[in-house]
Write a structure and sequence with these properties.
Belongs to the Nudix hydrolase family. PCD1 subfamily. The protein has four helices and eleven strands. By secondary structure, it is of the alpha+beta class.
């Protein structure tokens, strides 16, 4: 089976659908994790946010943002934001699934949306929001070589993951950490069916239980 088809079949098993629709009303956001196959390997696109932005300025993120008044769901938010930020047209994305939401350090309920795009896609970043766009092999997020983790960070439950990635095309080094790193690890673990070389703090065979626990712990404090 082709890498793309196999990955889609795996990820669909973890689609949360409306599983968390019962949660109390929280400000919502979503991100798009755009996967593509290059030389038989899975990769993803990531962005470096503009230093002029009010929140998370200069940080590495997946394309995404807060839900807009006209967004019908998390998928619509992720697709709209990806088009606004990097010029990725919604019709060019084959949406695969939505994964477990996580409450961010700013109190947003952030839902990752995973989709496949063509390898031929070339981004057109919006300079008001994005200062750089780059690709990362998905298995990078399972290697301990450039990975670091800390415990007990304020506002975080579990480990705070951190990676330093050098883009071979530009030579630029990017610091990928926090929620973005966690989402990347989760998608890598699920897609590649591969346990990382470092502790991730949850059962790779049953990740949903961990994220449900984290969500309920956060919500109980609201």
């Amino acid at each position: 089976m082709h890498v793309k088809d196999e990955t889609i079949n795996i990820l669909k098993q973890f689609d949360i659908a409306n599983k968390f629709s019962h949660l109390p009303v929280l400000p919502k956001a979503s991100v798009l994790i755009p996967l593509f196959v290059k030389d038989g390997e899975l990769h993803t696109w990531m962005t470096l946010r503009s230093k002029e932005l009010r929140t998370s300025a200069g940080e590495v993120c997946f394309p995404g943002g807060k839900r807009g008044p006209d967004d019908r769901d998390d998928v619509a938010t992720a697709l709209r934001e990806a088009e606004e930020e990097i010029g990725l047209a919604p019709e060019k994305v084959q949406v695969v699934c939505t994964l477990f939401p996580v409450i961010s350090k700013s109190g947003l309920l952030v839902t990752p949306v995973v989709g496949f795009i063509e390898e031929s896609f070339r981004p057109h970043p919006n300079p008001a929001e994005v200062s750089a766009v780059f690709t990362v092999p998905l298995d990078f997020f399972t290697s301990k070589k450039d990975h670091y983790a800390t415990h007990g960070t304020a506002g975080m439950v579990g480990l705070l993951h951190s990676f330093y990635f050098v883009d071979p095309d530009s030579g630029n080094q990017y610091h990928i950490w926090g929620l973005t790193a966690m989402f990347a690890i989760v998608v890598a673990v699920l897609s590649l069916r591969k346990k990382p070389e470092f502790d991730i703090g949850f059962d790779t065979d049953d990740p949903l239980s961990f994220f449900q626990h984290v969500l309920h712990k956060h919500i109980s404090k609201l």
